Amino acid sequence: MTGGALPSDPSAPGGRGRGTTVIEHVVEQWHRHLRGDLPGGLDSLLDDDVVFYSPIVYTPQVGKAVTTRYLQAAAVALPGDAEAGTPTSASSGGGGFHYTKQVLDGDTAVLEFETTIDGRYVNGVDIIRCNEVGRIVEFRVMIRPLQAVDAVHRQMAATLERMSPRD
Predict the structure, then answer these.
(1) Which pLDDT score, from 0 to 100, does residue 76 have?
(2) Dist. CA 142–CA 160, nearest whole Å
(3) Sheet-wide strand order for 120-130
(4) Which runs of consecutive H residues, i.e. helices, occur in 4-63?
(5) Taking the domains of the chain in order of start, what are their residue ranges?
(6) Cis bond before residue 145 (omega within 30° of 0)
(7) 65 Cβ partners below 8 Å, 6+ apart?
(8) Among 86, 102, 127, 155, which residue is least crowded by beta carbons within 10 Å?
(9) Are 27 and 128 in contact (CB under 8 A)?
(10) Residue 87 half-sphere exposure, CB side, CA atoms within 13 Å?
């Protein structure tokens, strides 16, 4: 069952009710996570074997732990130049991270976002693919323009360094 209607039993894995596709449910849960009101957070969203594709790192990053680390770092590094310190799923305008569009089809969502970092405009997409039980199995980030890629690279590197355990 890829992208089909979820079971009507709300206790079923990923279950939401009639008419809601798996990817719609996953995106709804992703937005809840960004708002900080998803019980279980990323652990409840990500498949154990999720693959993360970074706009900076050449090789795919495999597994829940490394994907969680990158997504948590992005939440810290990419809130943008707005006053608020956390990403939002609403189009908030200004320089803060916000999604501007979303396209859902089958098992895949494409969420376009904007933010500013150090006064530089950042435009990108999160491409999220899920499995039949509503877990994210692939998370791909693409960013433009080149100056934005450089700014995101610097911010992410600094954030990941701060997040690394000290010996």
Answers:
(1) 84
(2) 18
(3) 61-62, 46-53, 136-144, 120-130, 108-117, 98-105
(4) 22-35, 41-45
(5) 22-163
(6) yes
(7) none
(8) 86
(9) yes
(10) 22
What is the SS3 assignment for 88-130? ECCCCCCCECEEEEEEEECCEEEEEEEEEECCEEEEEEEEEEE
How many other C-beta atoms can be found within 10 angstroms of the C-beta atom of residue 23? 22
**Ranges of the chain whose pLDDT falls below 70:** 1-19, 81-95, 166-167
Q: What is the pLDDT of residues 137-154, one digit of tens each?
A: 999 999 999 998 888 888
Measured CA to CA, the distance from residue 108 to residue 54 in angstroms comes to 17
Task: Return the structure tokens found at 148.
Answer: 């934005």
User: Residue 53's pLDDT is what?
Assistant: 97
- Sign of the dihedral defined by the CA atoms of residues 48, 125, 32, 9, in that order: negative
Q: Domain 22-163 classified CATH 3.90.550.10?
A: no
H or E stretch including 162?
helix 146-163
Strand 46-53 to 136-144 pairing: parallel
- What is the H or E stretch that residue 47 is in? strand 46-53
